[in-house]
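@channel anyone free to eyeball this complex?
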Amino acid sequence: MSGAPTHESRRPTDHGAAARTAHLVGETAARTARLARGALLRRLVLVLALTAWQLGARAHGSVYFPPPARIARHAYDLWFSGPVGHAFLTPAAVDTILPSLGRMAAGFVLAAVVGVGLGILVGRSPRAYALCDPVLQFARALPPPTLVPVFVVVFDFGTPMQLASIVFSAIWPVLINTAEGARDTDPLRLDVAAVLRLTAVERLWFLLLPSALPRIFAGLRLSLSLCLILMVFSELLPGTANGIGFALTDAQSRSDLLTVWAVLVLLGALGYLLNTGLLAIEKRLTGKRSHERRSKGSHKSSRTESRKGRST
Amino acid sequence: MNRRQELALGALGALLALGACEAVGRAGIVRRSYLPPASEVLARAVELAGDRTFLDDVAVTLRAWALGLGLACAIAIPLGLLLGSVPVVDDAVRAVIEFLRPLPSVALIPLVSLLLGTGTETEVTLITYASIWPILFNTVYGLGETDPLAKDTLRTFGFGRLSILLRVELPATAPFIVAGLRISAATALVLATATELLSGFGQGLGIFIAQAQLATDGTRDVLAGVVWAGVLGLVINGVLVWGERRAFPWRAGARGTRGATRAAWRSPGGSGARRGGSGGSGPTASAAGRRGGPDRAGAHGPGAAPPGGVTGRPREHGSGEAADGEAPT
Amino acid sequence: MAAGATVLALVLVACGGGADSGSSGDGRQKVTVAALPLTDAAALYIARDRGLFVREGLDVTIQPVQQSIQALPALSKGQVDVIASANYVTFLQADEKGTLDLRILAEGVRTAPHMMDVLVPKDSPIKTPADLKGKTVAVNILNNIQSLTLDAILDQQGAGHPVYRQIAFPQMGPALEKGQVDAVHAVEPFDSAIQGELKTRVLLDGGSAPVQTLPISGYVTTSAFAEKHAKAAAAFKRAIEAASKIAAQDPSAVRAELPKYTKVTEDQAKTINLPAYPATTDAAQLRRLIELMWKRGLLKKPIDPATLLVK
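replying in thread with the prediction:
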């Protein structure tokens, strides 16, 4: 509120507060506008890209790159045109998608629980950490797809093999990250816990887990993407009988490119949804603190990067 | 616990693990042909080192791996520099990238196999595709982390945009790029073996494993092949970490010798030492530097800059992930 | 961007033309053939070893593959000119879907008695074909010739269908032994090998009515090759048909050839059941196969095989 000094405006606090508020409002407006513009631009580019693909595929007519509209329709026909009672899923979808998702979910939960549990144990004890370190490093260096034949031979094709593959690959990031997170607990806080005579469980719940949580989530995100990869890959091997990956190879052997593309789109959507979900959970659990720390003073692009996190 | 004790314990741990595998294998809990004891597997792995055909297979895999990785660098680094420098392009392209990112690259194997067959072309294409992402993201992130003061300084001296890019941003981004390269190297190995496992015929480490899987008593060969794959992964990672430390010794300070970092933080009245994870992350970061696995990529610990220095942002490990660019396959 | 560049490269490759089949130094037409190490490709090797290709003025190079579908992209791009022992079901489907413009040069094999059998363990409770209903049967590729023919046989007998599981031929023996499947549908030489190694009995002849003398695999090429090198295609067809005639009249020729390009030993080669090697290509028989495929939903519309044959 500038202008001629009147009686009212001579009060310094009012003037300052009003100016500050105005400034704040203006800044927020500008930032919102910038963000909105950015978001709009991104959506626009996405729409443009899809349109270009559609037109190009239509014009060229190559059987290997069908237009997105056809792919979407085919996916709908295959999986989502079912009765309302089944959440619109067709029987094919129920047979194909749900078992795969179930296996992946089970594998992820198992890997997470065991990984966090073992990670805390290993992390708290420097001796245990040193003991397990080489083994963990080796296990992490193994390319996960190479483990699948091992489990095929041991378990034969089917759910046990897939679960084992998923768990044995996805557990390492969680384990290692949790261990390191547990190791890095603030010594001051540990001292306080000792002073307060917290029990081991209390220490775990109130101190270790929360402080390690950002690292644990980093490991979980990596683990989730590994679960998706292993779920698909273990079903790609010849010999599987059902699942998303199987739908992929089956379509490949029939030269059914439309289905191949439909499955790819489904997997992309799945990966995106899962990652967003995990990020949402992380945000809820770790709270705004870590995000503030992350974005403080960072460049805008890196901020977007960290916010989007790892979608894979 | 000093270094030697750690190493001793580590060796002990490895031996214990091997012993456990041996016991399980010999106890007959699982049938011998299902899960041979560890000693047999290791013996076979060593035996394979002298097998000409096997070594040829490994060479083929490594060649495809190197080619794919090289192509990925050639595409991702310039692209990343472009995206990082021109925010508008970055924003525009980001939507499409976020669309493509969640898709596991292994899922592309059937499609690309239909297009290109089951030869090296498919393998290299897939490796390149999967390896582009970590390098790309790390390059973009690294550009974002460049010290703006240095850029401004050069600008005041009249250097042009491209010059600034080459003289300041590229060297500053280089450590990030190499960290991304390290992740990509692991990803490339994963894709190489995965493609070979699925194609099942031809030459390569994955094909050796796939054919051993089909053979009646092939578990030993499968496991020996897997051991080789793990060792390859370790060696590649180790070489890259070593190269990274040689090329960027100042960042070695971040990963640091453990004593040095810890001493720095334990200075009297060093309330800075109480800065949460800093003290702990010194050894962690250095341990990370030693292994430098994917989880730690870009985890430039707090030691990277003196506290309250020019870039004195508290680098929580959360922020380190942004540089991970973890799009593993 | 990155993905776009890769996609662009793939598009260019997909629609790019294939390599040209040149002539070798002495004026003979070069032809590259991909072949499976199965009895199906015997005529090819007979033709090579008896100089039939040379007589027709062809210089044939043979590339081994494990599954004919693996060579499909190479065929459509022209890196390979002909695929021997190409699985008709796979290639007809590819033709219908548009990934390949198929031409059939010559027939390869047709079913013959006991060239493929459904085997069960000797002590299995499955005694008649009707018992197969709902049980697991191992086949080499799902929704392909084996499940097609077996379902047709069972339908003829009024029996129910089994559940199929994909297991590669070499793994079928161990799978049967471990009890992972109730029965296996094995083709020679695995058929005899499994019967020799394990205690099994033959439940059903895979080549019985109504799929007797049904075409299984053949020599396929693209329309591009057939048009551009019509003379070579015709020459190849003549050579193969002559070799098939030899194979049909003199099985010992086939038995002598098998150990050279498959993992079959000489002793095994003497006793296995051979498929039928037709000396001419009969569109009517192919039509039977296509009808069967169409009825079971493997093809959307019946294709007229006469349009696919190369004269």
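from a first look: The domain at 68-308 of chain A is CATH 1.10.3720.10 (MetI-like fold).
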